[in-house]
């Protein structure tokens, strides 16, 4: 007896993408297995956000295939894909008049039934639990317009969790957060991966954050995958300097990791 | 903890009560006073009962028509604002009303009137909708909404100048008739038109209401809307298409009536919040009540020569909208 294996969350084969004449991705191949915790890094314009947009089916590659849970990303009906995959956008445009709970309830959208698509008690319970899970339980009644950037980010994450996703894509979730909020957010993401088994892929600018909290680092450069492996194995001046065009040093941290910094 | 749905539900109930009261009382008010007892007395032959004719065939018919048009304009405005993520987007700003007006006036110019003008208006509206849908395809996504709006404004200016050409070429009597039509009017005779329009417009309204949740998602951004399970382009085109067709139909009978689609949704959102599952029916009820009231004001203020409803809505709506804009700016 062979059991039907759960299809991989992501299998990207030789994908290329152009904005008009400008090539952004030039043949990237990589795959992500269930339960992985992956950081996607690279210099500005390396194609990180484009890759997220291709993975989420918003755009179709000019060449190659992006397979999400066994099906071409752009071929998924949006509603069905949204039941399995959540995306945290780089900029959140949720109307400020919404409360934390209302914004989180939007995450139940792909599951709503009926003519007017009103949420059931169960949907509300799931949304409340999602807010609690990210530590934003007290924001239930608070309007987004009165929240700080970090608080809004938590509500966005709660919205994504309310989708009960198997796969979570994040586009620079740490943008605009101070050190304390960064640490809280990435510890939370790590625990979501470890405890709920959510496969997690996050674009990040910060290599040190990638090294601290992620199991695997995919390094993009000029639309190609320049490195793919354990973050510590990639945080070396000889690998990073040509990618970023910067002079760098690296150091072993007291807890056995690697950290990277700029030369003065 | 209070139920967050309580406020919008109470708001909707209040709007419904207001609408019922307005629709019940508006027919009783007018320049010529009527004897209500005599009007409702069925023993008097219809042809001899002037009070009855004034109450039912003139005033009630007019109120029903005003309510239908008001509902349509407010809902369509709300749909355009939600799906294009722009507080200034309405069928007017995108040229649908202009296209309908041009179509209706072209028919008037070649000697048509009444239903023929309405057909011209619908045709003009349909062509404009097709142009807008085509433009919407070209201006896809979030950045495109500004481009689409600018294209609509340009279409509107184009239609306005073509209407000016028509007026310039017409003889003085025709020019006056055109001008009067462009001011908007709800003076219909008999309930026939409303009975025919009502099922079409109410069906459209029901369709728009069923898209309300998708409109909530479209108020985020296209990518997020997609990641939450809808096809943003398809939802936007369906909602705009239906709203624009409804507007074309209303405009071709009532003439272009401005500001209802612009200020009503703003006011309703203030009362009911941001959830379109409540805001859309709120706009339907509020828009209907508002236009009946505006028409009533026009009938009262003007004396024998009553003020066209389009002028009343512009005189109320213009300052109110400026005030809203200023308040937003000051915050």
Main sheet record of chain B? none
- Write the CATH homologous superfamily of chain B: ABC transporter involved in vitamin B12 uptake, BtuC
**Which geometry of chain B do the CA atoms define?**
globular
- What is the correct CATH architecture of chain B? Orthogonal Bundle
CATH superfamily membership of the largest domain in chain A, which one?
Answer: P-loop containing nucleotide triphosphate hydrolases
State which percent range the strand residues of chain B make up.
under 5%
Structural class of chain B: mainly alpha
> How is the CATH topology of chain B named?
ABC transporter involved in vitamin B12 uptake, BtuC
Structural class of chain A: alpha/beta
Can you tell me the CATH class of chain B?
Mainly Alpha
Number of helices of chain B: 14
Question: Pair with the most extensive interface?
Answer: A-B, 34 and 24 residues
Q: In percent, how much strand structure appears in the residues of chain A?
A: 25-35%
What series of H and E elements makes up the topology of chain A? EEEHEEHEHHHEHEHEEHHEE
What CATH architecture of the largest domain in chain A would you give? 3-Layer(aba) Sandwich
What name is given to the CATH topology of the largest domain in chain A?
A: Rossmann fold
Regarding quaternary structure, what we see is heterodimer
CATH class of the largest domain in chain A: Alpha Beta
Main attributes of the structure:
heterodimer, A: alpha/beta, 2 domains, 6-stranded mixed β-sheet, 4-stranded antiparallel β-sheet, globular, B: 331 residues, ABC transporter involved in vitamin B12 uptake, BtuC
Q: Any overview of this molecule?
A:
The complex is a heterodimer of chains A (264) and B (331). Chain A is an alpha/beta fold and 264 residues long. Helices cover 31% and strands 27% of the residues of chain A. Chain A has two domains: 1-84 and 166-180 and 196-232, Rossmann fold, CATH 3.40.50.300; 93-164, no CATH class. Chain A contains nine helices and twelve strands. In chain A, the strands form three sheets. In chain A, strands 6-7-8-3-9-10 form a six-stranded mixed sheet, with helices on both faces. In chain A, β1 (10-19) and β2 (22-32) form a beta hairpin. In chain A, α4 crosses α5. The radius of gyration of chain A is 19 Å and the shape is globular. The termini of chain A are far apart. Chain B is an all-alpha fold and 331 residues long. At the A-B interface, α2 and β6 of A face α9 and α10 of B.
């Amino acid at each position: 007896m062979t059991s039907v294996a759960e299809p991989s969350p992501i299998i990207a084969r030789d994908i290329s993408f152009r904005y008009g004449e400008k090539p952004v991705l030039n043949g990237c191949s990589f795959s992500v297995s269930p339960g992985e915790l992956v950081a996607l890094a690279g210099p500005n314009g390396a194609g990180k956000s484009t890759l997220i947009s291709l993975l989420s089916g918003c755009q179709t590659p000019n060449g190659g295939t992006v397979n999400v849970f066994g099906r071409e990303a752009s071929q998924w009906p949006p509603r069905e894909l949204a039941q399995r995959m959540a995306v945290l956008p780089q900029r959140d445009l949720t109307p400020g008049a919404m409360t934390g709970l209302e914004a989180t309830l939007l995450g139940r959208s792909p599951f709503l039934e009926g003519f007017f698509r009103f949420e059931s008690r169960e949907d509300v319970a799931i949304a409340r639990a999602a807010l609690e899970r990210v530590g934003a339980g007290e924001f239930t009644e608070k309007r987004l317009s009165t929240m700080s950037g970090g608080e809004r980010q938590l509500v966005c994450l709660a919205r994504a969790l309310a989708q009960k996703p198997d796969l979570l894509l994040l586009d620079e979730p740490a943008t605009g957060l101070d050190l304390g909020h960064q640490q809280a957010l990435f510890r939370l993401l790590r625990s979501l991966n470890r405890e709920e088994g959510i496969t997690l892929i996050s674009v990040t600018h910060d290599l040190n954050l990638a090294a601290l909290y992620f199991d695997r680092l995919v390094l993009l450069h000029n639309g190609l995958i320049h490195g793919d492996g354990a973050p510590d194995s990639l945080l070396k001046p000889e690998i990073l300097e040509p990618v970023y065009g910067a002079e760098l040093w690296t150091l072993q941290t007291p807890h056995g990791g690697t950290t990277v910094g700029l030369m003065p | 903890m209070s139920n967050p749905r309580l406020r919008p539900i109470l708001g909707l109930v209040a709007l419904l009560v207001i609408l019922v009261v307005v629709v019940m009382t508006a027919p009783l008010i007018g320049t010529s006073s009527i004897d209500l007892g005599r009007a409702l007395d069925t023993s008097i032959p219809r042809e001899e009962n002037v009070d009855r004719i004034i109450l039912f065939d003139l005033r009630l018919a007019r109120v029903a028509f005003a309510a239908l048009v008001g509902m349509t304009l407010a809902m369509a405005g709300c749909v355009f604002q939600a799906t294009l993520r722009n507080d200034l987007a309405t069928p007017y700003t995108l040229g649908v009303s202009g296209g309908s007006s041009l179509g209706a006036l072209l028919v008037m110019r070649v000697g048509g009137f009444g239903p023929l003008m309405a057909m011209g208006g619908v045709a003009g509206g349909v062509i404009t909708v097709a142009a807008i849908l085509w433009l919407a395809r070209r201006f896809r996504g979030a950045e495109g909404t500004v481009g689409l709006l600018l294209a609509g404004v340009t279409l509107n200016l184009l239609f306005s100048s073509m209407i000016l050409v028509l007026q310039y070429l017409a003889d003085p009597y025709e020019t006056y008739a055109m001008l009067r039509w462009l001011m908007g009017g709800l003076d219909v005779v008999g309930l026939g038109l409303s009975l025919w329009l009502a099922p079409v417009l109410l069906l459209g309204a029901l369709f728009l209401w069923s898209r309300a949740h998708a409109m909530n998602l479209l108020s985020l951004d296209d990518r997020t809307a997609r990641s939450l399970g809808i096809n943003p382009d398809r939802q936007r085109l369906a909602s705009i298409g239906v709203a624009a067709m409804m507007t074309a139909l209303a405009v071709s009978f009532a003439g272009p009536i401005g500001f209802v689609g612009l200020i009503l949704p703003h006011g309703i959102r203030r009362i009911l919040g941001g959830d379109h599952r409540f805001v859309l029916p709120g706009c339907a009820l509020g828009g209907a009540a508002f236009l009946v009231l505006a028409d009533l004001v026009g009938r009262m203020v003007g004396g024998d020569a009553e003020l066209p409803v389009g002028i009343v809505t512009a005189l109320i709506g213009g300052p109110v909208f400026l005030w809203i804009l200023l308040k937003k700016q000051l915050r």
